[in-house]
Amino acid sequence: MPPATKRSRSRGGGAGGLEYISLDGLRIDGRRPTEVRKIRCSLGALSRADGSAYYEQGNTRVLVAVYGPREPHSRASIQHDRAVVKCEFSTAMFASPVYRRTWKGDRKSTAAALVMQKAFEGVILTASYPKSQIDIYVQVLQNDGGALVAAINAASLALVNAGVAMSDFVVACSVGFVDDTFVVDPSSLESASDRPELTLAVLSHSAKIASCQLDSKLPDGESFERALEFATSGANQIFKVLEYEVRKYSLNLLDSRGLVAL
Amino acid sequence: MPKVENGAAPVGLQFGKEMGTLALPGEEIGKLVDTTPPHGLQSPQDQKRAVVRLGSGVTQRGSSLLSSKAGKVCFDGRRNKTWVENNQKRYVPALEDMVIGVVEERHSEDVRLDINGTDTATLSSLAFEGATKKNRPHLDIGSLIYCRITRASKNMEAEASCIEPGSNKSWVGGEALYGELKGGNVIQVSLGLARSLLVPNGPVLTTLGAKIPFQSAVGVNGRVWIQSSSTEHTVLLSIAIAKADTMPADEWKAFVKKMLEQAT
């Protein structure tokens, strides 16, 4: 349910006279600036894929399937010393409020796919699967802002589900900048093309950065560092949820064999 | 503390104190401890034991051991080996694994087996006990072979063999452990279930065996072959084993009971 948007005399900044931060310091959907939307996820949503995950972050919903390590489709793409990571990012026609014909090769999807590919290439232990290919297929079912963030988090879960060896667990979070305030995990109302938005993917245990992308300029260098801090704290919030989910999933697996020894 | 199998305490490594039994990728599961003479172990016997073996799902960064998969941390005291046990669908060949392969291609000297991994495995036509150039099994495309992996390298194609070390039962007599599986039915399950089926007196096969007599072969590559006296029973057993993959233990038992009641 999209929240009722209050139209009031603008405090400046907001396009279309929208008040992004109320006088109480709450956002349009009632969240505090540092709060992440509600997350729901499940592993192994698809039976045919080697690994899969369904992920919801607020009203953004994605489904990710992972295949591999499997034999590469084309001989030309074989790397003799490591696995090749490929990513495909597609958005359903019904994903956004406007029913629109989309295809996986458009500019935004290609960019998102490339970001994911680069982020996961660094994390997956590709050297342990030479001459093979790992495919990540992302399908955005509903886009309410932060589709890339949701896709990265879902892909992490799907890779865990597939049992692909990784050096760390990737978690992503984005930060928007509206009305001179940093808002963690902006929804589609809060993220417009002309506004700064930082999308950060971090490695949860070693706290390294897997990917960092800034759309539009932030006022100064200092605010970039603050944005990074907000994004990291948001990612930590998300990681707690994902960690819980993975542990629950592993425990269920052991339980299904009567092997629980805790 | 992780579950310790076979008693003996770890040597040369120390598990993380607050470790649960489940680990996530990137989580530290323990540290390697220096055991060279000035620091501790003196006797050559202990020194020999201090070789730490890292199994699948464990990587080393400096002196710390990190998990690379999500699963249960395991330790085998007999071999001083630690690994992370998880469940997945793709098989990665490992030495001395017992697998069930499907013949994909036939060549003059060998056959190609699909072992459910990234790559195929080769099985020499002579890799049967007592096989000679003139007297060797005829393997058609599509036939099932129960064999063991004799060469597993990530850079080379795996090699399989049907020769059982320490046994001289000829392939002709039908008594050999490895060889072609004729008749019956084969199903694909997750690798975790396949491994748990191999545990002696495991709950799944024992429960089913008490109701219906059957023969089975379990490949750690996730293939399970079942044969019983009638097709009906074989189908029932196949469904029951496949269901054990996802159902909780008690629910599964109830399911099997109900299914068998309805079938008879």
TrEMBL record, chain A:
GO terms for biological process: nuclear mRNA surveillance; poly(A)-dependent snoRNA 3'-end processing; rRNA catabolic process; U4 snRNA 3'-end processing. This is Uncharacterized protein. It comes from Chondrus crispus. Coiled coil: none annotated. Pfam families: RNase_PH (PF01138), RNase_PH_C (PF03725). Keywords: Cytoplasm, Exosome. Its main location: cytoplasm. Belongs to the RNase PH family. GO terms for cellular component: cytoplasmic exosome (RNase complex); nuclear exosome (RNase complex); nucleolus. Residues 35-164, 168-233 form the Exoribonuclease phosphorolytic domain. The lineage of its organism: Eukaryota, Rhodophyta, Florideophyceae, Rhodymeniophycidae, Gigartinales. GO terms for molecular function: RNA binding. It comes from the Eukaryota. It is found in: Cytoplasm; Nucleus, Nucleolus.
UniProtKB/TrEMBL annotation, chain B:
GO terms for biological process: CUT catabolic process; exonucleolytic trimming to generate mature 3'-end of 5.8S rRNA from tricistronic rRNA transcript (SSU-rRNA, 5.8S rRNA, LSU-rRNA); nuclear polyadenylation-dependent rRNA catabolic process; poly(A)-dependent snoRNA 3'-end processing; TRAMP-dependent tRNA surveillance pathway; U4 snRNA 3'-end processing. It is found in: Cytoplasm; Nucleus, Nucleolus. Keywords: Cytoplasm, Exosome, Nucleus, RNA-binding, rRNA processing. It comes from the Eukaryota. GO terms for cellular component: cytoplasmic exosome (RNase complex); nuclear exosome (RNase complex); nucleolus. Gene3D superfamilies: 2.40.50.100, K Homology domain, type 1, Nucleic acid-binding proteins. It holds the Pfam family RRP40_S1. SUPFAM superfamilies: Eukaryotic type KH-domain (KH-domain type I), Nucleic acid-binding proteins, Ribosomal L27 protein-like. The keyword RNA-binding applies. Residues 184-231 form the K Homology domain. Belongs to the RRP40 family. This is Ribosomal RNA-processing protein 40.
